[in-house]
C-alpha cells in the first residue's frame, strides 16, 4: 500500500493541546492519531486506527493460538444479570446506567463476566464441552471519577476480555497459565515492557491474580519489586510480621498526663525523659497511631472504622480500599477517606489526638466491635506482646506500656500501612523498591463466584452436577496504544515499535526537481510491490523542514528521503529512533529497506 | 485454517426460538450464529462473527477503493453538538439518553453527522483540503419502539456510515455518485439483490436521496416499481396530477340534506339519484373526504391537521409522517395518528362525518389556517375546477358541486393518499406495482444543513469563506448478515453466498473406520495447505444424520463427505444450494474443491 500524505486525513499540530498532561496524549493528538470527543472519550483518526488495528491483530493471533474463540457481546446490557451478581450496585458511580423508552434499566458494560457465564450456560451442559476459552475485543465503559492522560484512563475504551470455563481447578490453572503465556507473548510482540505483579494479597487468601504493569513515571499504579524477583502491586504487598513476644514480663500499663507533646516526636522524647524503657529507647515505631477513616460503600452507606498502626507509618488509603470491604461484609468498590469532623462528632468517645484502645476508660472506646460498636483493625506489626504508647481517650493524656494481647484486642488485622522503599519483600528476596506503572493486563482466577451466582453447572464424568470454575483475563487495547506512545517518543515526536507502526516506511521527496518527485513516485511503487506499507509525503510545495518535522512527529520507524542525494544516485535512509542515517544507492533501496523492515 | 467442529463453540438447536418471527432470525439462532441479550440486542457467536467480519471486509475494501478513509468515533457522546442541530430533541424517544456521574447529558449515537462535521472543522480550513470522504464501521444505538426480526431491526447494531465534504455542489454530486457506485458493488459482491429507490419526494424539493432496498416479504418498507424502471419508496411517490379545469361552467354549490347515506357508496348512489351530474355519474372519487389527524412533535406538542382527499383513497400515515413536519415548521421525526375523540372535542366546528371546507357556514370551518386556525392540506388530485361532494359541517347535510379554486382553498398540497398497485408512475413509465423490502443502505445529499449549524466553512480559491456541502451514506452491516440469511435459506437451514460464508468447505467424516477419519484428517490438512478455510466435523461418535443436519443448518456452500465411498477411492462433494452431489476421486479432491470455491 502507498498512502499519499497529500490525501491523508491528517493535520499535525505545532502546539500541545491544552488539556494534555502526559507525553503520549500530547503527541497522539499533535500527530493526528486521536481527537478528544468528551472527557475520557476519544475519536480515532486514520493513523490512530491503523496502530489500533495492528495491536488488535497481535492480540487476536495470540488468543487464537491458545485456542480461545472470538465472540462479540453488546455494550448495552440489561440490568438483570448484573443484579444477580450484585455488581449493578457494587460498581457504584463507575457504572453508566440508563433507561430505555419503557423505563427498563440498562447499563453500558464495564466488563462481561455475567454475559459470558450465561452464554456458556445456554450452550453447554457437560464436562466434555470444557474447557472453553472465549474472548472479545470490544468497547467498554466506565464512568471514571477522574479520566486522565488521554487514552491511558478513558471512559470509553477498547479491551480484549477473555473468560475460561473449566470443570475443575486443574483446568482453571491450565487456562490461567495459557493466558499468562499468551499475555507475555503479546506484550513482547508489541514491544511493551511489562512486569507481572501479584495483585491479590496473600493475607486475604483467595485466588491467584496477576497484573501486567508497564513501568513508567506517568503510571497510576505503584508497585514494588525486589532484586530477588518479587513483584507485586502495593495493594498486594504483605507485611513481614515480627514474631510475637511473651508479655509475662511487660510492665503494667499506666496513664499519664502528657502536656506539650503535639507531635509523635515530642511524645517520644517526653516518654524517653520521663518513662524510659528498660531495654532500649522508645521510638516513633512504638507509638500506636489510631486513624479514623470513613468508608463509602457502593450502597451509599458510610461506615466509620479505626485502624491502629505504628506512629512512624502513614495509612495508604488505596491499600485500605483493596481489603476493607471484606471486613465490612460488602463486595464491590469502596471509597475511603479520613473521617470528617461530622463523622467524629457521631462518636464523642473518640478524643481527637488521644484515641487509643484498651483499658483507659471504664467503657472501652476501641477494641472489638462487639464491645464498642466500632470496627477496629490493626497493622500486622502489632503482634502480641508488643508495648505501645497510645492515646488514653482523654484530652492531654496518653497510656504507656499498653501491651497487645494483654491490654487490648481488635477485630482483626489489615494491610493498611504505606509500603516504603527498603521494606523487606514478603518472600525474603531482599528490600523492596517502589516504581510506577500502567496496568496493561490483568489475569484472575475467578473460581466459582459467577458460576454459582448464575447457576452454571455441567455434568461431570459420573453424571453429577458440578459448578464450573472460571478465569477472567483482560488487556487494555486502546490503552496499549497510549502506553506504546508513552514509552516510545522523544521531544520531537513518536517512535513506534516496528510491529505496531502505522506504516513500514515514511518516504518523502524533498526539493523541487521533477526528477526528484518522479524518482520518489517510482520508489513508492517499488516498495509497494515489495510488500511494504508506505506513507509517501508527496506534497509538492511543502518545505523539507516541515516534512522532516511531520515525519518525526508521526514516528514511522524508518524514513527514506529522496532529495539532493539523487544527483549522486542515492537516497537517505534514516532510523527514527537512533537518528542514524545512511545513503543507499537508488537501485539497492528496495532490498535495503526490506531488510530493515523485516529485521534481516 | 481448519476449525474442528468438536472444538468450536457451537450448539445447534432443533427447536425454533420462541421469539423469532422471521426465518433469518430463527436460523441464525438455531445454527449458533447469534444469541439474544435483550430486546433488539444480540451477541455474536464465533460463526456469526466470522460472517460479520467478511461482510465488513467487503464494505471496507469498496469504501477504500473510492478513496474514503476509515476513522472511528465513540458511541457515547455529549449532548452539545446534537443540541446545536436540534437532533437531541428531534430524535424523541428513539434516542438512548443518559447522564454521567456529574449529571452531564450524554447520548448513544444513532448516527454521527455532527461529530464528523466538527472533526473536519477541527482539521481543515481550505477548499484545497477537499473533497474528503470519511467512514467508520461502528456500533450504533436506536431505541426502537418495536425491535423485531432479530438483526433486521435492532436497538444496538453495526453500521458503516460515511460522510463526504465538498466545497461545491459539483463535488457533492461526484461524492454521491462515487458512493452510489461503491454501494452497488458492495451489494453485488455480498450477493444481495437490491433495488435503488428514490427516497425523497420530488414535490418536497430538497436534495437527492436513494435507498437500497432488498426485496423480501419480511421487509418493513413498502416500495413501488414500474416495468419501465421507476422505483421509489412509498413516501417518495408523487401523484400524477390531472390537469386543472376551467370552473366557469360549473354549477353553483348547493347544500342538501342527505339522510340515510352512512357510507361513501350510499352517498354517491343518493347523489346520482337526486342530483345527477350532467357529464357522467358521480363516483366515490368525486367525494372529498376530510380526515382529521393528530401529529405528535418531537417537542412533545400535539397538533391537529385536516387532510382532504378523494373518497376512494385512504390516508397513508407513513406518507404523511414523511412530509407533515415541513408544513408544521418542525424538523425531526413525528408520529401521526387519527385524531381521538378528545382531539375532536377541542374543535367543535368539526362535525364528525360531515366535515368539509368552504362556504357551508358563515364562519368557515376549513380553509386556510389564517382564516380558521386549523391547518388544511389537500391531496394533489384536488386541482382547480374539480367538483366535489363533501360535508356541510352540519349533521345530516352535504354540499354538492363544491368547486376547488372557486368555493374553497387550503394551506397547500400533501402527498397523503395511499399508493395503489396500478397507479401511474410519476415519470410515465407505466403502472406501479407494490413490493416490500429491507432498507440495506441509504445515500443522501445533506447539503449545507449540518455545516451551517456547526459553522463548517473553508476558504475558497478567492480567499472567501464558503460553507461546506456534505453527503451522508449508510449501510446496515449487521442487518446485511440477516438479510443474506433471509434471502438464502431453505427449510433445512442457511445457504450462504460464497463471499460471506463462514467457511469455504464443510468437511465431514461419516462412518466408524479409523481409515475414514485418517483420510478426512489428511484431506483437511491438504485443503488448508491449498488456502481453503475448512470446517471439519471430526466428532467421532456423532451419527451421519446429525452431521448432515448440522451441515445443512450451518449452511457452508460446499460439503465434502468422507464416508462409504472411500472404499472406492472417492469422496462426495455436495452443493448446499442445489443439493447436487458428485463423487470425486480422493486424489483430485483438493483441485476440484479449489475450483468450486474459487469459481473457476
From TrEMBL, chains A, B:
Main location: cytoplasm
Coiled coil: none
InterPro entries, A to Z: aa-tRNA-synt_IIb (IPR002314), aa-tRNA-synth_II (IPR006195), aa-tRNA-synth_II/BPL/LPL (IPR045864), Anticodon-bd (IPR004154), Anticodon-bd_dom_sf (IPR036621), Pro-tRNA-ligase_IIa (IPR002316), Pro-tRNA-synth_IIa_bac-type (IPR004500), Pro-tRNA-Synthase_IIa_type1 (IPR023717)
Keywords: Aminoacyl-tRNA synthetase, ATP-binding, Cytoplasm, Ligase, Nucleotide-binding, Protein biosynthesis
Source domain of life: Bacteria
Compartments it resides in: Cytoplasm
GO cellular component terms attached to this protein's record: cytosol
Single GO molecular function: proline-tRNA ligase activity
One record GO biological process: prolyl-tRNA aminoacylation
Pfam family, one: HGTP_anticodon
Enzyme Commission numbers on file: 6.1.1.15
CDD domains: ProRS_anticodon_short, ProRS_core_prok
Catalytic activity: tRNA(Pro) + L-proline + ATP = L-prolyl-tRNA(Pro) + AMP + diphosphate
UniProt KW Acyltransferase keyword: no
Family statement drawn from the similarity comment of this UniProt entry: Belongs to the class-II aminoacyl-tRNA synthetase family. ProS type 1 subfamily.
Oligomer status and interactors: Homodimer.
Protein task: Catalyzes the attachment of proline to tRNA(Pro) in a two-step reaction: proline is first activated by ATP to form Pro-AMP and then transferred to the acceptor end of tRNA(Pro). As ProRS can inadvertently accommodate and process non-cognate amino acids such as alanine and cysteine, to avoid such errors it has two additional distinct editing activities against alanine. One activity is designated as 'pretransfer' editing and involves the tRNA(Pro)-independent hydrolysis of activated Ala-AMP.
Domain notes: Consists of three domains: the N-terminal catalytic domain, the editing domain and the C-terminal anticodon-binding domain.
Record's protein name: Proline--tRNA ligase
